Structure formats: structure tokens, C-alpha cells
Amino acid sequence: MYRGRGGYNNNRGGRGGYNNYNNNNPASNLQRANDYVNQNMITVEIQGWDNASQQDLVNFISRKARIVVSNTSVDQSGKLLLGQVRTMRDAQDLTKFSGARFAGQTLFIRIVDNFGLNNNSNFNSNSGSSSSSSNGAKDTIELLKNFLLSCYNPQIKMLDLQNVQNNQILINNGLFSNANTTSKFFPALLKVAQKEKLEIESINLSNNNLDDYTKWLNELALNFPNIKNIALSNNNFKKIDVFDRLKNKFSSLRELIIQGNPLSQDINSMQKLISIFPRLSILDGTPVRDEEKLNNILTFPINSKSMFFENDDLSKAATTFLTSYLNFWDNNRMNLISLYTQQSQFSYQCDSSVIGDYNGNTASNLWNNYTSHSRNLKRVSNEKSRMLRLFIGPEQILNTFNCLPKSKHFLDIKPENYAIETVSFPVMSGMMITIHGDFEEVGQADHQFADITTPNNNNNNKGHSYNRYKNNTHNNNNKKGVLEKRCFDRVFIVVPGANGAFIVASDMLCVKSYSSKKSWNEKGIKNADENQTNTTTNTATNAITNTNPNLINNIPNNNASLQTLPPDIASKLNPVQQELVLKVMQETRLKLEFVLMLCEQSNWDYNTAGQNFINSKSQIPSDAYI
Amino acid sequence: MNGFQIAGQSQPNGFQNRDNSATVENYLTKLLESLDEPISNQQAIMKILPQLHQNPRIIINGNPFGSREQFQQLWARLPLSNHQITSCDVHFIPTNNTNNPSDGQYIVSAHLKVRFDESGKNKIGETASFNNTTTSSTRNIWSHWFGVSLSLVADSTIISNSNTEAISIWDYRFTENPISSVFKVN
């Protein structure tokens, strides 16, 4: 074991040093250290070297590539040199040295370590070329596969690997001919088991002379972390440390057999074993935990249900609202403006923390599209900064929407990726809708947030909101963030407006790192009381999948009145003017007569109308709005 | 429509601009601390989220709960937990009470991470071990982190007194599961 200060040859017996084992014998320590290194060496094959001696080549590589090649041997043809390097990284670095000129030839170097079993082993020693080496690897894999299947019992999903080092077939094929091949046998066997997709719940590794330095258990944890039963009887485990290093691995281990090892004589170590493996219920045949009680304690008692609606009315209202809302959010956010009044609030928070599975994207600009105006209170502590990130009223909110990346939700196609809760909000006769799920960013925003810290000198822009955004074309494209798949939570407080239309009083969006492991969508989730709530859930799911996402009238009922002009007014306007009036009316929510006044004063220019509206907003009477 | 002002209606002068977010943030921290406290006796169970209304809307993982007491009994039988807020936000919606302009509702949306003790005992000390000395002496073994989305609605009284029964909606949902964990959320 390599731990503590002092290194392998430290003869002073310091804490935790290698000398703590084997009675402080330096020669033994050195031997063990060398064994460790030898067991993990990687074999490489070098061609194009034979104009010089082996030693010249080794010296050349050491000098030029700073990599030591040892244990060199030459095949019968005298053209192929096999050597070993200490680590896979060294081996990979060495392959990059292919193409270097040496003694009038060009070197060709490749890694030939296929599970480490086709090199330096008896069955492969007569290979005279790389092709025969490759054949040797195939033979070895076939040998392992046959051996594996002979040890596997599919009925009880058990792999019986007792006393494998005395298996005559394996010995005859040279799998235990030296330390290198011996050490690589078990990892190779597990890789073949994975390739064969063997389901292994139990493994018997008894009588294999395994000791505190074995790597077999680590390899097992890496390849089969969910194994439930392990037998290790009659090996040579002496210290608890080897198991201590397995903490947080084998999270499903329920039975362990350790008898016949020196360790099993130590009561304290045996008790520690129980705490190392939290699901362990049986140790050496003796129950140590109440398995049923343990399952109750270690399982959250409430199974996830993806949908909850307080009643059927809310189910219909919420699914209609969400389906339409997300459709517009994805396709034309302008259409959402009528949902927001002057008192509506919107803010978003981005949370870059990674919980659960890691998606691997570490791009520095991963969150650039969100960070500047994110109102994550854990990140924004200044009161003024917090207020600047709270968007109030339809203009500010819509402008913010247009500064967020274009997106695509899949609520109708993959409703299983979404969870929704809806409860009534009696204080305002409304409802609170919470939705969780994921979306894909499909394009950069049309507009980009202005630097929130940069003062805007345009005196014409008195409106607070307009100072906070600028057209995308004026911005530095380097600030754009990566388009990604992300998860989100969103909370709406929806209240009834005029004519029963929906009004969003509060809208909070939390954008998070993508996680494919959604708690409500875990495989195998079977709710015991599914029948009780299936009706509501199914109704909701059906509603989502069956709702026409273009049902604009389902959102604000008064929106219909905004789509056409009275005939007497329309007759006095040309088509362009009619279109402008409708557009301004939708965006400002002013009554028609005020919109007409605004458009006339703005010479029927859209931008001027918007500017004039902002400039005079404070003087517009409240009854001028719809 | 009851209470919410639509466009053009005036609202209490400047109230919406008053920022109580720091107070609400501290309040949220306090709520989570009450979820994470070890429980030494039966009385301590009542200290789990005492800020809930007597009959609030409690939704856990998409399941409704009947009462605060029911929720407290459930939570007491979980292993020790440890919550951390990774992100949160708050909105205030006034209820337009002319006598009290600060009257209203705080809407909190938070993303949390939570882990649970996997040593085999729950908050009230029940253990599955046949040998109590084995686990009672062990330290907590924390699970990997789970992600949780929390949305809640609280009365504006929390600004002046964080101990009142102010929470009318408590929606707690696990949203992210670790790749492997001894503690399971199904």
C-alpha cells in the first residue's frame, strides 16, 4: 500500500509508510513496489528501429521523448521490438513519437496491450508480427469468454470465480505466467463480462489468495457497482483499509462473506465493515441489519408523481395555459404580451451548479446568455442590483423575453420529461402553476442584454426598460453563450383578468444545468397507490398531448377583440396603418382611440410610436388602458 | 379578478420597489434549517417547519399532504438531511389592502441541493442495525446530492416575524437524482 510520506524505500518506519507492512524489510518493500509497477506496465510495439541496437533505441526515446522503455524484447524476425512503459499516458505519448527519424529509418510505435494478456505471455510468445499478435488477443478474449460462461449461472445471476489461479486451462494458456498477466486477468475478465452483458448480482471470489493489496475489488466496483452479494472467504485480507477504500462503492451490497480471512477475527473490523457498506444486511451468514427497516429508512417515502392538479378545473386550465404558453414562448414570444399587465413581474435565475449526472460541457461561455440579468439571490446581494433584475410590466418583460435564447420545449411530444403541480391561489382567485422539465436552445436571442453596469447616454430613452437592452447587431458576439440543452423550473401565479382571460401576476424562471436523470422519470418507478391518482395524471397528460398548441384564444379571451378593427375605423386606414394599429395596441395595451392618437402623432412610424409611448407613459391616464 | 391590479391602476406608492428579498432569503434559510435539525424527542417534531399554516397546501413530489402534522411525522422518519440553496428568487404580490399596503404574498422559487445520512438511522434515532452500538457511534455518511425545486407562498407577516404560521403553499419536488446513491428517491 502506498500512502503517507517516505516513499517505497523509506526505512525509517514513518506513519503510514510502505514500511508498515512486511516487518519493515526494505528488500521486501522494494520488491513489492517493483511488483506494483510491473503489474501495471503497458506494452508497446516499435517498428523501424533495427538499424541500431535495442539500447540505442531506448536511449534515443528516453532522450527525445522523456519516456523510459523497459523489458525490451525482439521477435523472431528481428524487426519488431516489444517494450513496456510505466503508464497508459506514457504509452499514448510514445505513440505520438511515431514518425520520428531514428538511425536512417522512421519509427512506427503502437500500443498492443489488449487487456495486457497478449503480451509477454506464453501463448503469445511466438508471435512474429503484429497480425499474429492481434490473433493472440482474439484467442485470449475467446478463452476468457468461454471461461466466464462456464463460471456463470444465469438463473441466480452468479459468477463463481473460486480458486481461479489454479484453473489448469488458464494456467496452460499462460494467463498467470508472470505478475503482469496475472494482474490483468481479472480486469480483462470483467470487461469481457460487460461486453457479454452478463447480469451479475453475486460473485464468489473465495480461495484466490487475495490480500490487502489486491485491485480486484476496485475493479469489481468499477464494472459492477450494483452487485448485491460478494463472497471473499479463505483469502488473505488482514486490514480493514482495503474495504475502507471501497466506501461509497457497492451501494447495493447486502451480503458479504469474509470468513477464513485474518480480518474476520477482529471484531472491531467486522463492525466497521457494517458501517462501510450501508446496505449490508448479512455478514458471514449473520443478519446485521433489519433489511425491511433499512429499506424504509433509506428510501424517500413518497414516490414521485409527475403531475398534480388540485382539481379537474385547475387541470384543464393549467394544461391549456402551459401548452399554449410554451408554444408561444418557443415560436413567437410577442404573442405573450397580452398575458402581462403593468403590475406583472418576471425574473429569471440561472443556476450553473451540476447536480446528478454531469453533462460534460465546461465551456467558459456556457451561461453567458443568462448571467448578466440573472436574479439568483445567492449571487446577487446588492439591493439595487436585485431590483434591476426584476422586470415589471409588459414592455420590460417582453424585452427580457427577447434577450433570452430561442428555445424548443417538448411538452407535447415527451410529456414524461415534465412535471407539473397546480394549486389554487385563493388570495387572488387564481392558481399557482409550477412546471419542471427541459428545453433545447435552438438559436441566439434576437436582442442582447445591455451591460447592466454601463450607463446609457441616450437622453431620448427616458424609459428605464429601454436602457437595459440593445439590438443584437450592436453587441460583441463574443459575449454570446453556448446553445445547450437545459433543465428549468418555472413558477407562474396566474389570475383571472377581464372576460376570464389569464393574467400572469408573477413569473419566475429558473434555468439549470441539464440532467437526464429526472426524479419523477426514473426507470422502474411504480407507485403503490398509482390507481388513486392515475385519473388526474392521465387526464393531465392527455390534455397536454391533445391540446392544440395554437389555441391562442384559450389564453386571453380578450385577445380576440385585439385581432380586428371596427369596420368604421378600418375603412379610414390603409392596410399598413391597420397593421400598425393592431401591433401597437397589442404591445401597449392602450385602448383603440389612444392607439390611433399615438400613431397619428408618430406619423404612422412604429419606432417613433414606441418611443413616444415610453416618453409619455407617466402621463397616460389609467383608463387609457384596456 | 380579486386583488391583482391590471394595467393602468395605481398601486400603493412605491411599495413594489421596496426590496425585502434579503429578509425572505434569510427566512428561506431558516426554513431549511428546521428541516435539517436532528430530532431529540417527540416535542422536537413540532419544530419541523412550524411556519406552515395548520392546513396548508403541501405538495411533496407531486403528492398532496393533508396537514402540517402529517408532513412533520413523515419528515421526522427520514434520515438526517442537509439542504443547501443553490439558487433562489422572490416576488411580492400586494393584495391591495388600502389599510395596510404592505399586505401581500411572497412567492419564493428556489433550487436546492439536499443529501441524506446513509448510516442507517433516521432523524428520531431509529436504526435498522441489530447491534445499536455499531451505528450509533458512527458518523453521518452523506449521500450524493439530490436536486430539489421548492416553490412556496408565504404571507407578508414573515418580514416582521419569521415564526408565524405564514406558509400557505409548500411545493417540494426532487428534480435531479445522483447517478448512484444508497438513499433512494423513486
Distinctive features:
heterodimer; A: 626 residues; alpha/beta; Alpha-Beta Plaits; Leucine-rich repeat, LRR (right-handed beta-alpha superhelix); 5 domains; 7-stranded mixed sheet; B: 186 residues; alpha+beta; Nuclear Transport Factor 2, Chain: A; 6-stranded mixed sheet; 4 helices; 6 strands; 18% helix; 32% strand; globular
Summarize the structure in words:
Chain B: Residues 1-20 are annotated as: Disordered. Chain B: It holds the Pfam family Mtr2. Chain B: Residues 7-20 have a biased composition (Polar residues). The complex is a heterodimer of chains A (626) and B (186). Chain A is of the alpha/beta class and 626 residues long. The N and C termini of chain A lie far apart (78 Å). Chain B has 186 residues and is an alpha+beta fold. Chain B has one domain: Nuclear Transport Factor 2, Chain: A. Chain B is 18% helix and 32% strand. Chain B has helices at residues 21-36, 42-45, 68-76, 132-136, and strands at residues 52-60, 63-65, 81-94, 104-116, 146-155, 167-176. In chain B, a hairpin with a 2-residue loop joins strand 1 and strand 2. The longest helix of chain B has 16 residues, at 21-36. The termini of chain B are far apart. The interface between A and B is large, with 99 and 81 residues.
In short:
With 626 residues, chain A is of the alpha/beta class. Chain B is α+β, with helices and mostly antiparallel strands and 186 residues long. Chain B has a single domain (17-176), classed as Roll (Nuclear Transport Factor 2, Chain: A).
The largest sheet of chain A is: 8 strands, mixed
Helicity range of chain A = 25-40%
Secondary-structure class of chain A: alpha/beta
Overall outline of chain A: elongated
Approximate strand percentage of chain A: 15-25%
What is the annotated CATH architecture of chain B?
Answer: Roll
Count of separate structural domains of chain B: 1
Low-confidence stretches of chain B: 1-17
- Derived from helix and strand composition plus strand pairing, the structural class of chain B reads alpha+beta
CATH topology of chain B: the name is Nuclear Transport Factor 2, Chain: A
**Oligomeric form of this entry?**
heterodimer
CATH class of chain B: Alpha Beta
Rg of chain A to the nearest angstrom?
A: 35 Å
> What can be said about the biggest beta sheet of chain B?
6 strands, mixed
